[in-house]
Amino acid sequence: MKQHYHSRIKPYLLISPALLLAVLFSYRPFILTLINSLHTISLSGKHLSFIGLENYRRLFTNPSFQASLSNTLRFTLFFVPTNIIICLSAALLTNRSGKLATLNQIFFFLPMAVGLSSSMMILKMMFNPSIGIINRLFGLNVQWFNNRHAAMALLVIAGVGLDIGLDFLLFSAALRNVPTDLLEVAQIEGANGRQTFRYLQGPLISSTLLFVVVTNIKDAMLISSPVMILTEGGPFRSTQTLVYQMYLDGFRSGNYAMGSTIATVVFLLTFSVLLLLMRLERRRVYYQ
How many other C-beta atoms lie within 10 A of the C-beta of residue 3? Predict the structure, then answer.
């Protein structure tokens, strides 16, 4: 009886350190953020009064929030498919033996070795309209930081540059796990590269594809650092995202209640999108 009791309690003891860390650094801050969004808060962080959903009403009628929400959704729609196509194409191109393939793999993996701030500063210099190498190399005259469409495109490029290393690595590992005997059968049957990917490789790496899509959506909804370094929300709030507005309201302006409200909205919006995606996963994803 005693041995049976120990065998039942042992798993809970093993996960207790991880559970404690999750409660302290994830669940507790989220609950406090939710509570803060229902109050007015002083600059010292004290709750002044309970106002219910008034902060949410003010937020959704705020033109700045509406612009931030629109920009975040537009960035997500542009970034996720662009990043998936580039990373998957790179993994397919390097999914072969040979020294050249190895060099290509190192090339796509290199962005992971550069820090976020450093890579964004390099990108900012490269896309400088006056002295940047991009305009000079391609003979362009694009005002990357003053044109709303060019600034959004620059954020998409920055997002791809930040995620390409890990996503390329995941796709490469998934493609290498496709059984070689199945690929040989497809080749013998006369299937070309497009048919092989559509009917064989694609379904077999669908679980990895789902994971990459989920993480990309999460990264897109939470983007802030590239905005701070590259565009600062400009021009005319055309690249101001939800998390960047949370930073402006919650930290720079000291409006902790509104910052907490935006954080809660970002969580609920991201959670809803990912929940819908996970429901579709049951029909579309194949697990080996």
Answer: 7
Distance CA 104, CA 91 (A): 9
- Spatial CA neighbour of 219 closest among 82, 126, 67, 26: 82
- Give Cα separations from 45 to 17, 40, 78, 229, 255 (angstroms): 30, 9, 37, 28, 10
6: Cβ–Cβ under 8 A, 6 or more apart, which residues?
none
Of 145, 283, 270, residue with least CA distance to 214: 270
Q: Which domains does the chain have, with CATH numbers?
A: 2-36 (no CATH), 59-284 (1.10.3720.10)
pLDDT in tens, 189-247: 788 878 888 888 888 888 889 889 999 999 999 998 899 999 888 888 899 999 999 99
* Angle, in degrees to the nearest 10, between helices 148-176 and 63-93: 40
Does the predicted model carry a pTM greater than 0.90? no
Q: What is the DSSP secondary structure assignment for residue 77, as one 8-state letter?
A: H
- Contact criterion met (CB below 8 Å) for 227 and 155: yes
CA 97 – CA 180 distance, rounded (Å): 13
Stated length of the chain: 288
Residue bearing tokens 């990043």: 83
- Which residues make beta-bridge pairs with 47? 41
- How far is Cα 58 from Cα 3, in angstroms, rounded to an integer? 58
Identify whether the C-beta of residue 164 lies closer than 8 Å to the C-beta of residue 90.
Answer: yes
Q: How far is CA 163 from CA 79, 127, 225, 235, 254, in A?
A: 10, 19, 13, 25, 32
Q: What token pair was written down for 168? A: 């390329």
